[in-house]
Design brief:
single chain; alpha/beta; three-stranded antiparallel sheet; 9 helices; binds 2-phosphoglycolic acid
């Protein structure tokens, strides 16, 4: 895994956006896997700015979001469908029929999850998957204990995630208990993964993910098996990495042709 430690979240977001923009320029039909939460906001701002400047065209891009809350309609203020519209889709030109988010109101959840997996396959697979990491080591909503081979399915949120995400809801009681999420196996199938993590609350999960054993107790650690995964962190999120000096050294002398 490549670990890039940047002076600020803003810089990390800019690097991640440059990677995504380069992919879209090279392949206008790119398939992006997208994430929600506080972490990717700067990434979406950067891509929206690149679009507004006139250069970056999303008209043939296809997207698949990682997850959605069960029971929330797409126009619910806390749904991830609404989050994506507000923070990204309303600011770029992705045709609505190319946007995919699990349906929180699906009546037959297993069938919906199977159809979501099939849609990813039919689109040719995900070229670039953006990820955050939960303070408990989750990716998507794959909570500790998730099968490392899991596919899109229903999951029950862990208490810690409910607490972490309560800040987006009027009260913790209103955080849904169930979600639909891509599985760890679904995520590992993406051709490239980009993980963003900012702030000291993520430092322990980041260290476990990069330098700990691969274990279902830290679902993000499965990314150690991924052949093309980059982690972009700010200094507080990097604080518990034992090999931080080595990662800095690698990035400092990275050949120019490899730089995003
Ligand atoms: P956050 O969530 O970006 O809101 O910290 C990250 C995650 O749960 O994946």
């Amino acid at each position: 895994m490549e670990v890039i430690i940047t002076p600020s979240a803003r810089e990390a977001s800019a690097v991640a956006a440059r990677i995504a923009a380069a992919l879209i320029r090279a392949n206008p039909r790119a398939v992006l896997g997208l994430a929600t939460g506080g972490t990717p906001l700067g990434f979406y701002d950067e891509l929206a700015a690149a679009h507004a400047r006139g250069g970056l065209d999303f008209s043939q891009v296809t997207t698949f979001n990682l997850d959605e809350y069960v029971g929330l309609a797409p126009d619910h203020p806390q749904s991830y469908a609404r989050f994506m519209r507000e923070h990204f889709f309303s600011r770029v030109n992705i045709p609505p029929n190319r946007i995919h988010i699990p349906d929180g109101l699906a009546t037959d959840i297993p069938a919906h999850c199977a159809a979501y997996e099939a849609a990813i396959r039919d689109a040719g697979g995900i070229d670039l998957q953006l990820l955050g990491i939960g303070s408990d080591g989750h990716i998507g909503f794959n909570e500790p204990g998730s099968s490392l081979g899991s596919r899109t399915r229903l999951k029950t949120l862990a208490g810690r995630t409910i607490c972490d995400n309560a800040r987006f809801f009027p009260s913790p009681d209103e955080v849904p208990r169930h979600v639909i999420t891509m599985g760890v196996g679904t995520i590992l199938d993406a051709r490239r993964c980009l993980v963003l993590a900012f702030g000291e609350a993520k430092a322990a999960a980041v260290a476990d993910m990069v330098e700990g054993p691969v274990t279902a107790s830290v679902p993000a650690s499965a990314l150690q098996f991924h052949p093309s995964c980059a982690l972009l962190v700010d200094e507080p999120a990097a604080a518990r990495l034992k090999r931080a000096d080595y990662y800095r050294w690698v990035y400092a002398i990275k050949p120019e042709w490899q730089r995003p």
